[in-house]
Amino acid sequence: MGAIPTQRETISRASDMLAHEGASLHTVVRTRLPGGPLAPGAARRFLRAALGAWAEAAEPDTFTERLADDALVVVSELVTNAVVHAGTDIDIACRLHETEDEPPGLLVEVSDHHPSRPVRDDATEHTYDIPEYGRGLRLVGALATAWGITYRTATKTVWAQLPLDGAQAAEDGIEVYAGEDVLTGELGTAEILGPEPAAYTEPGRGVPDRDWRGRGALSFLAEASDLLAGQLDEDLVAALTGQLLVPRLADWCAVWLEDEATGWHGPETAVTTGPRLARVWHGSENRIEELRRVLEKDPPRLPESVRSRAVPVPWPGEALGPRGATGAALAYRLIAGGRPLGTLVIGRTGLLRFPDEVTGLVEDLSRRVALAIGAARQYARQATISRVLQRGLLPGAVAEIPGVRSALVYEPCDKGGGPSGDFYDLFPAGRGRWCFALGDVQGKGPEAAVVIGLARPWLRLLAREGYAVPDVLDRLNQLLLDDATETADAAARALVAAGAPVPVADGGSHARFLSLLYGELVPFDGGVHCTLASAGHPLPLLLGPDGDVRVVAQPQTLLGVVEDVTYVCETFELYSGDTLLCVTDGVTERRSGSRQFDDGDGLAAALAGCAGLSAELIAERIRTLVHEFGRKPPEDDLALLVLRAE
Question: CB pairs under 8 A, 24+ apart, for 555-559?
Fold first, then answer.
């Protein structure tokens, strides 16, 4: 099994494969996704890209909007089932086909690697006893001309076939949500789950909820999935849930979130903290605070046996005033990956019980809410780990150098990929010497953290042992090469032990490249003696008191690339008013369209305009100019170090 592609890679791969195969009716696109909460959204984007590419190459009206809507709902439901009930990596295949016996169709296949855990599809109607597995496969059955499950030695595949002409071949219709509503071949996606006009009315008025009926439940679920999938904050997910449900399906709702540190294991198990009421939403703003107060007194505690089924809970009539004295309230456990994450409660005034179609629909929504909360928590955990690692990889404070004023700007670009690849250091090396470093590791995340965790301590150790600047770079280069070789050898041994073929070395698959600007400062009476070297790093600039700017190093090879390379250094003096500017490529390569910040010596021009300013003001001005250079925020880590002789 190869590396799992990113969502962007899977989408672009769909377009590439289609272009390569000519978009014939035998076209197949495939991808693999991690079995996590973000998989359904990634699957929809992948299929949407495939359908778009097919539509461009096919005859007009071959791929209708209805087919696209149906296909996106089907792949979303199949992937959601695989995530919830298997949790393994997920393989998706979409193919166009036609045979002599069948008209052209679209076949969607979703495979997981848990054949011992079959998908269940309970067609029995229950008032408040909807199966744990939701009604996703009943939606698939309603939209597909045929669907089924195929078991192989290591995989289970759930497949569904959709007709290109949008015709539904169900013989007698299939019940979906409404107990009395029967599907016909003329219904589109948006109407399939829309209740009959008399099935769901506004409380006390007998007037159909036209807005809800018109949108249709499937359209609602698809839009809710897209809205929730991109949220990375669990409290925002709770807030969006309230806005999705009120007033369409309920007069009010509340979301409790379980404390991740303690969890919740049922009413028999004591915990130190209870669930947190994250959000209360009511159609009338003036009822929210009183409803919150009442609900906080008695959080719902549902037995584990109900899983995600709807369970009636007491009606908080005292918080809803005379018109809300009676009504129906339901609670749903929010479960993702087998772990309880919280509870969703909805209420509607004037009902004895919720209609079955609403009960099942909210259960399907609750599954999506749970997946979104799980994704948000996973992101939060990763962000916390990244922050902790980042703090451990950087110095707690920079040293103060006699006769030199320093200023630092460090802005890691947080895209959820882990610790930044940029790092810095400024430390005393003993015997009247101070050393500084500004580095940039290829990539970011755990691999970058490994290189920084290796390089920065060795820099300090070698400097304090008295090694000169070129010698420090020589030894660090060899250290990185040795470490890469050991890593590659360990990986090869693991493959041999597992009986897998060992890939042919490409000379760079395990390489850890590092660009580094490293220097040594020795203060003397009237100035500072500076020795530095640049290994594949943007060259430092020296600003004189008169505004003159010049480069004070020569380009050399990256660290960790070539064996037996010999590094050289540059030596010069910083006198009062002289300023040394060191930056990473997040500054020089900052983009605005096709232009970069350092095009035409842009950085030198910006520095020339800083003559006479303090180190802090120079650092702030360069930072501001870099940010203002493009309309969008910087997409790379940004670090710069200013050293000014006083």
Answer: 558/513, 558/514, 558/515, 559/455, 559/473, 559/476, 559/477, 559/480, 559/513, 559/514, 559/515, 559/516, 559/535
Confidence of residue 511 (pLDDT cuts 50, 70, 90): low
pLDDT at 619 over 50: yes
Winning range, highest mean pLDDT, from 365-379, 474-488, 528-542: 528-542
Percent of residues, the chain, with pLDDT higher than 90: 33
Range with the lowest mean pLDDT among 53-62, 228-237, 343-352? 53-62
Mean pLDDT of 554-570: 92
**Which two tokens mark 463?**
């400097």
Residues 349-380 have pLDDT tens digits of 988 888 888 888 899 899 999 999 988 888 88
Indicate if the pLDDT at residue 402 is higher than 60: yes
**What is the CB neighbour count within 10 angstroms for residue 153?**
5
Token reading at 76: 């979303």
Q: Residue 627: which of 580, 595, 592, 601 has the closest Cα?
A: 592
Strands ordered across the beta sheet of 28-33: 28-33, 90-97, 105-112, 156-163, 146-151
Sheet with strand 311-312: strands edge to edge:
276-282, 252-257, 339-349, 327-336, 311-312
Please confirm whether the linkage preceding 312 is cis (ω < 30° from 0): no
Would you call 505 exposed, middle or buried from its count of C-beta atoms within 10 A (0-12, 13-18, 19+)?
A: exposed
| Surface-to-core class of residue 57, CB atoms within 10 Å of its CB (0-12 exposed, 13-18 middle, 19+ buried) | middle
Please tell me the predicted confidence (pLDDT) of residue 573. Answer: 95
Cβ atoms 137, 121 nearer than 8 A: yes
Helical spans, DSSP H, in 498-598: 585-588
Q: What are phi and psi of 608, to 5 degrees?
A: -60, -30
Distance of alpha carbon 155 from alpha carbon 520, whole angstroms: 59
Residues ≥6 apart with Cβ < 8 Å to 510: 484, 485, 487, 488, 491
Q: What local confidence, expressed as pLDDT, does residue 596 receive?
A: 94
**Rounded (5°) CA angle 397-400-405:** 115
CA distance 325 to 182: 35
Length of the chain: 646
Q: Give dist(CA 583, CA 407) in Å, integer.
A: 12
Q: Which residue has the higher pLDDT, 620 or 210?
A: 620
CA quadruple 171, 176, 180, 183: dihedral sign:
negative
Cα separation of 433 and 252, whole Å? Answer: 68
Q: Once rounded to an integer, what is the mean pLDDT over residues 105-128?
A: 61
Residue 429 pLDDT > 80: yes
Separation between Cα atoms, residue 218 and residue 361, nearest integer Å: 9
Question: In this structure, what token pair is assigned to residue 233?
Answer: 């904050």
Closest to 552 in 3D by CA, of 503, 509, 589, 517: 517
Q: What single letter denotes the amino acid at residue 357?
A: E
At 133, the pLDDT band (50, 70, 90 cuts) reads very low
